[in-house]
Amino acid sequence: MKLLVTGGAGFIGSAVVRLAMSRGHGVINLDALTYAACLENVASVADDPRYAFEQADIRDRAALDRIFAAHKPDAVMHLAAESHVDRSIDGPGDFIETNITGTYNMLEAARAYWTTQGKPAGFRFHHISTDEVFGSLPADPAVKFTEDTPYDPRSPYSASKAASDHLVRAWAETYGLPVVLTNCSNNYGPFHFPEKLVPVIILNALAGKPLPIYGDGSNIRDWLFVEDHADALLLVLEKGALGCSYNIGGENERTNLELVRTLCAILDDLRPKAAGSYADQITFVTDRPGHDARYAIDPSRIRAELGWRPSVTVEEGLRRTVQWYLDNEAWWRPLQERHGVGQRLGTKA
Ligand SMILES: NC(=O)c1ccc[n+]([C@@H]2O[C@H](COP(=O)([O-])OP(=O)(O)OC[C@H]3O[C@@H](n4cnc5c(N)ncnc54)[C@H](O)[C@@H]3O)[C@@H](O)[C@H]2O)c1
């Protein structure tokens, strides 16, 4: 298949691009190259004749029409988004424009292209979203997000993603656009931009800096290795039921404090300090406003219908991730100079 992947220079999008190419698909990577992008993430496939890069903004409808007409993709995997919750608290405007208006433009450009192609039944618009649209869960481990959990977004980021999900469903119902949707939990892994929790902890630890934990560290997330996620996304694209959404989780719930302690233990093993443990650098800081207490995915549908389960535990995935950061300083060092990276954001509310 020839896939149009938006946001393919970002963290998850680039994992999708690399995996799709390794499985024989062609890829058109459409990305505006915002502060969060890094073309190094796809350097391993950039010279392949089945790969093309288009620098374009999903807010620019004319550019999208030109790209659809030029490349004639068989399917769209839409990942381009503003993705950092803390930045959405300080500046929600970009999130509204890219995540909502940008998704609207993608849907309209895809619909126009699909119509001119004679509405091929095999065409897919795969919208990649987040479990944060469902809001916050109580501590009870029996309660998890299913695909039928009512939407209850609580941050500007999750509200913008929820709006985009609604648009995608509306385009399927109203215009018959063949869509599939996925809502995943927190990803981690190689090429994770160094403003997110896992890379911040690894890189601060190595630099001898405090390891910031928001609030008391009791917030629970369901950690999903990015390469497992990319695998699930390609499976849903190829085998997912038309119009259906699938929740994708890591089956690895951990509190933020547990996660950080695990990272410290891995670092103590792989790059021991002269004295003491990296855990000595843990520092509790002011909580994020409206910080959701718990996210957890009920993976029943994707497991039962598509036979998918994550391949690694969070301990295995984190060990691979830490080793990758130890081996790839040339990738992360320059990114630390980008605007806002290394600063505490999202405390304005
Ligand atoms: N990272 C997670 O844990 C997570 C969890 C659930 C869902 N998601 C969703 O997965 C998708 C990818 O997330 P990520 O973590 O890889 O994000 P990311 O911030 O690493 O990458 C986003 C990419 O989109 C591009 N982009 C942003 N605005 C654009 C625009 N207007 N036009 C074109 N390109 C634009 C950026 O340049 C960047 O390359 C997003 O839709 C996000 O909401 C992420």
Brief digest:
The chain has 11 helices and 13 strands. It has 349 residues and is α/β, with parallel strands linked by helices.
CATH homologous superfamily descriptor of the domain at 2-192 and 223-252 and 296-312? NAD(P)-binding Rossmann-like Domain
Rg over alpha carbons: 20 Å
Please give the alpha-carbon distance between the first and last residues: 45 Å
Count of helix runs: 11
Q: Helicity level, as a percent range? A: 40-55%
The proportion of residues in beta strands is 15-25%
**Are any ligands bound, and if so which?**
nicotinamide-adenine-dinucleotide
CATH topology of the domain at 2-192 and 223-252 and 296-312: Rossmann fold
Mean pLDDT: 96
Structural class estimated from helices and strands? alpha/beta
H-E string: EHEEHEHHEHEEHEEEHEEHEHHH
Overview of this structure, please?
The chain is α/β, with parallel strands linked by helices and 349 residues long. The protein has a domain at 2-192 and 223-252 and 296-312: Rossmann fold (3-Layer(aba) Sandwich). 40% of the residues lie in helices and 16% in strands. The strands form 4 sheets. The protein has a 7-stranded parallel β-sheet with strand order 3-2-1-4-5-6-11, sandwiched between helices. Strands 7-10 form a two-stranded parallel sheet. The protein has a two-stranded parallel ribbon with strand order 8-13. β5 (124-130), α5 (156-175) and β6 (179-184) form a beta-alpha-beta unit. The radius of gyration is 20 Å and the shape is globular. The structure holds nicotinamide-adenine-dinucleotide. The site of nicotinamide-adenine-dinucleotide (NAD) has 30 residues, from α1, α4 and β5.
